[in-house]
Amino acid sequence: MPRVTMTVNGKPVSGEVEGRRLLVQFLREDLDLTGTHVGCDTSQCGACVVHVDGHAVKACTMFAAEAEGADVTTIEGIAAPDGTLNAIQQAFQDHHGLQCGFCTPGMVMSAAALLAENPKPSEAEVRDYLEGNICRCTGYHNIVKAIMAASGQDVNAIAAE
Amino acid sequence: MYEFDFERPTSVADAVAALGTEEAQALGGGQTLIPTMKQRLAMPAKLVSLTGIAEMQGVRRNDAGELCIGGGTTHATVAREARDAYPALADLASHIGDPAVRNRGTIGGSLANNDPSACYPAAVLGSGATVVTSNREIAADDFFEGMFTTALEDGEIITEVRFPVPEAANYQKFEQPASRFALVGVFVARFSGGVRVAVTGAAEEGVFRWHEAEKALSSDFGPGAVEGLSVSADGMIADLHGSAAYRAHLVGVLTKRAVAAAAG
Question: Which of A8, A123, B48, B121 is deepest in the core (most CB within 10 A)?
Answer without folding.
Answer: B121
